[in-house]
Amino acid sequence: MITLALSKGRIFDDTLPLLRAANIEVLDNPETSRKLILDTNQPGVRVVLVRASDVPTYVENGGADLGITGRDTLIEHGGQGMYQPLDLQIAKCRISVAVRADFDYERAVKQGSRLRVATKYVAIAREFFAAKGVHVDLIKLYGSMELAPLTGLADAIVDLVSTGNTLKANHLVEVERIMDISSRLVVNQASLKLKQAPIRALIDAFAKAVAERSEI
Ligand SMILES: Nc1ncnc2c1ncn2[C@@H]1O[C@H](COP(=O)(O)OP(=O)(O)OP(=O)(O)O)[C@@H](O)[C@H]1O
Ligand SMILES: O=P(O)(O)OC[C@H]1O[C@H](OP(=O)(O)OP(=O)(O)O)[C@H](O)[C@@H]1O
């Protein structure tokens, strides 16, 4: 049995076409079912639904053989314990610094001010501001980062941006792009040895589907 860890929502939705390319159909719809273990048309393959930030933990510790997770989540978790054979080019976005439109970020940085930065991505933010030589107080949040500058909790946020609509709706502006993000296939190291043939077949099918898509 091969177990693939996915999170509900965009990662699940964007993974379905890749699974289809490997002749795998998920038999339940996570939006309508309360099941956490989903069967597929292949008796040897199942999908487990976990929180996006829990995917690396499941894969690293053998709760799943494979998983799909954002580069952001992988960096925060630390990816050393897993193979990362493939960038799937799905759930693409970027991680950026944003501030209130009336906050002069350039000036604060030039003056060497200490910045209060709210984020779910403390490792990425710490590394980024350390490399710039900017002193920051990091405030760990688990969601709705955009609210922090609006309420006076923070001067800036480090968060994911795709269309920019969420920032715009909250009168925030993107002032720095830290890195591009997409989702990766991650594989448990022991699983790759013990279940080599089926896992290799899945990696190859995904790789082919990603390559074909990038040709379009
Ligand atoms: N707006 C977006 N556009 C494209 N990709 C995104 C966007 N937001 C997030 N992602 C990517 O999708 C991944 C999963 O995001 P999702 O919103 O499903 O989970 P989450 O709510 O961030 O995680 P958790 O439930 O663990 O807090 C992120 O880690 C990121 O790589
Ligand atoms: O630039 P945009 O296209 O507006 O996308 C950016 C938003 O997308 C993500 O939130 P998501 O929609 O996943 O909601 P979440 O807070 O539940 O993760 C992210 O946390 C941003 O808030």
TrEMBL record:
ATP phosphoribosyltransferase catalytic domain span: 51-206
Annotated InterPro entries: ATP_PRibTrfase_cat (IPR013820), ATP_PRibTrfase_CS (IPR018198), ATP_PRibTrfase_HisG (IPR001348), ATP_PRibTrfase_HisG_short (IPR024893)
Pathway entry: Amino-acid biosynthesis; L-histidine biosynthesis; L-histidine from 5-phospho-alpha-D-ribose 1-diphosphate: step 1/9
HAMAP family (UniProt xref): HisG_Short
Domain topic, free-text comment: Lacks the C-terminal regulatory region which is replaced by HisZ.
Quaternary context: Heteromultimer composed of HisG and HisZ subunits.
Name of protein: ATP phosphoribosyltransferase
Native species: Rhodoferax ferrireducens
Underlying gene: hisG
